[in-house]
Amino acid sequence: MVIPAPPWQRPTRKRPVKPPLSRDAIVDAAMGILDGEGLDAVTMRRIAEELNTGPASLYAHVSNKDELHELMYDRVCGEMELPAPDGTNWREPAKQWMRNLHATLARHRDVARVSIAAIPMGPNVLRSGESLLAILRAGGVPDQAASWAMDLFLNYVTTAVYEGSLMADRGGWEHFQERISELNAYFRSLPPAEFPNTAALADTLTAGDGDARFEFGIEVIVAGLAAYAAGVVPPR
Amino acid sequence: MVIPAPPWQRPTRKRPVKPPLSRDAIVDAAMGILDGEGLDAVTMRRIAEELNTGPASLYAHVSNKDELHELMYDRVCGEMELPAPDGTNWREPAKQWMRNLHATLARHRDVARVSIAAIPMGPNVLRSGESLLAILRAGGVPDQAASWAMDLFLNYVTTAVYEGSLMADRGGWEHFQERISELNAYFRSLPPAEFPNTAALADTLTAGDGDARFEFGIEVIVAGLAAYAAGVVPPR
DNA sequence: ACCTGAACACCGTTCAAGT
DNA sequence: ACCTGAACACCGTTCAAGT
Known about the structure:
The structure is a homodimer.
Chain A: H1 23-37, H2 44-50, H3 65-77, H4 91-106, H5 112-117, H6 123-138, H7 143-169, H8 173-189, H9 196-200, H10 202-205, H11 210-229
The first copy, chain A, binds a DNA duplex through loops.
């Protein structure tokens, strides 16, 4: 006696009106919304709409919205170029690692926020971290310093990209310029008795675009790590 | 002829059942919810409930939720102790500034998130910034470096506190310890061909509590700023 | 196994109406 | 001027029911 397959396993001739749902298809749709409208627009309901279903259908492939955000973040990290370690000079590839991560995240609006609100651990995130550890260790940075430096590097790049994306979102370049000069005027206008330094440094406080500020930060962090690793500052 | 005052200006004998609404009262209620349940619980509706009104009533005193969050952040910054500048040694007060800001923010759950998502500019935030500029300039740090360093310091402290608050929220200390050892095991279990460094550094990657990691970061940043200011790294 | 509609328990904000 | 109720246009997630 032959038991017939249940109806959902029987092949159907009717060609499907919609492509089948899958984790990848969901992340695809989510990435499209992210790049077009930013992370806040990536809601379960919006993704479902994009895929011509109801939001409940997504939960068969993704356990919740946070997990979906982390899947998106990992996909983005897969786009990062990983600098080769250099035994004679770890500073340059270390800085390049930060620049590459920055550029990759910046291409996708405010995804950076995902890694601020959680600690993503997808395969591409791990590969990226492995690459940084290889760069630092090849240069002789001690293991504990290299390990904690990874956190420091990630935090710095991530928040820098995120702040940049906030600026980019709220109006274009001219709007940004305007905000900066308003801020400058505001600093100048502060009572000099209480805020002598803020008022005096109005120009330097508002100087530099995102890139100049980012480069300052990576110089400081890499120089500091070099000093720390060389034992100028005693580890505790 | 005497024009009578409009009814809402006429004194009333009926003692009010509820205290009158005000910006301060709203921020008070919001702070209570923040300290008890975290920033996500601070919603307009929840605050209104606490004050025995409807959410619409709040909008007479506060323009929106983001502004309210910034008012809260500024109030918290008012609790920060500001280290005195020292002309002979800026490193120590600079580090102490970071520790003090860290401690202050950490006392209030995940408020730190407010200053990640926006750039608060309330009076107490400005006073705190002024204090850091005074410390750095007294030590001879050049103006541009001091200005950009303020951003760097703020970013570092803020994200450190926020990550700490995420850890603290998701279960207590034993739960945290457990997560750490799971992470350690996970790093060890990674395929050594692809993840040699991550696997080898499992112990150092998961070593150190929040304080040790925080201290590492401030040492690196301050050492780096010193190197930068001394011209070891050429400014661009 | 996979998908669905409907519901639950929330949001921030607006707006006409009341005092 | 200040406060209110009701509504608008959303959320994430669950759950019983369908195929």
